[in-house]
Amino acid sequence: MKYAQDIAAATQEIFSSMVMLDVTPEEPFKRVDSTLSKSISGIIGLAGTIKGMLAIHLPHEAALAVTTAFLGMDVEEIDEDVCDAVGELANMLGGNMKAIFDPNGGDVQLSMPSTVHGEEYAVDCLADAELVTVPFSFNGQTFMVELQISESN
Amino acid sequence: MGKTVLIVDDSNTMRKIVSRSLRQAGIDFDEILEAGDGQEALDVLAANSVDVVLSDINMPNMTGLEFLKAKSEDDAIKDIPVIMISTETGADIIDEAKSYGAKGAIKKPFTPDLINETLGPLL
User: Fold this and answer.
1) What is the pLDDT of residues A87-146, one digit of tens each?
2) Is there a contact between B109 and A85 if contact means CB atoms under 8 Å apart?
3) Do A102 and B93 touch (CB under 8 A)?
4) With contact defined as beta carbons under 8 Å apart, do A43 and A93 qualify?
5) In contact, B65 and B93? CB cutoff 8 Å
6) Each residue of A6-55: pLDDT tens digit?
7) Domains of chain A by residue range
8) Which terminus of chain A, N or C, has fewer Cβ atoms within 10 Å?
């Protein structure tokens, strides 16, 4: 699937160098059901010649484990630190993918990262967007990185 | 007299990570000051003696580029060196940052070694 390898490489680099966790990419897929349960999502918007969004979706337990590793301190509930950490992960993923979409700069703009979390919610973007979702695993936990984009010349 | 660094980033997480990376890089500052956006950074620089600034670019209220421009127009602080630390290090953005006096750029994600290589020569 287009961009799946780029997402896998960017995510592995960010997690190994900044979070100090080794994450393993699994088989990419197209997520049909946009509903997420007991999760937190970090989302960054893309505008310009590539429009859409990039998101990282972590179940609550995975988000706590990632934030604990990221900050180097125990985190036990979905709080401001977790939201900030997940938003920053989305920000770094967006920056890495922007460098692939727009190597010379000027054609693609990134939004500020945002986060959403809860018992059940949906994250959806453009109706005609190309969609690729890459699942990852680490220490018995899983999370997903998802790209929904529409490309124009 | 000890050295002071100012870390500018709207993400509290990233400010902590940059502080940790400075320690891991073996760069020992006596004081680490923080600001959440460009305007806060200008306020900190006006009130403190700072040796070097590490600043994000993409921030609310006042961006890193707006901060650099305002700083370059203030004779009291314009010579304090600034390194940009950002997810966005495209040539267009870095050229603009350098036109306002930025001394270099570090792309997120980064390693302590990269921080050391970029920051070391300025200290």
Assistant:
1) 999 999 999 999 999 888 889 999 999 999 999 999 887 768 889 999 999 999 999 999
2) no
3) no
4) no
5) yes
6) 999 999 999 999 999 999 999 999 988 889 999 999 999 999 999 999 99
7) 4-151
8) C
Give tens-digit pLDDT for A44-95. Answer: 999 999 999 999 999 999 999 999 999 989 999 999 999 999 999 999 999 9
Which residues does residue A134 pair with via DSSP β-bridges, in sequence order? Answer: A145
ipTM of the complex: 0.85
CA–CA distances in Å: residue B123 to residues A26, B67, B91: 44, 22, 25
β-pair partners for A56: A42, A145
B114 part of contact set with chain A, CB < 8 Å: no
pLDDT at residue B1, rounded to an integer: 54
User: Cβ contact (<8 Å) for A14 and B12?
Assistant: no
| A-B Cβ pairs (cutoff 8 Å, strict) | 64
CB contact under 8 A, A102 and B91: no
Check CB contact of A100 with chain B, cutoff 8 Å: no
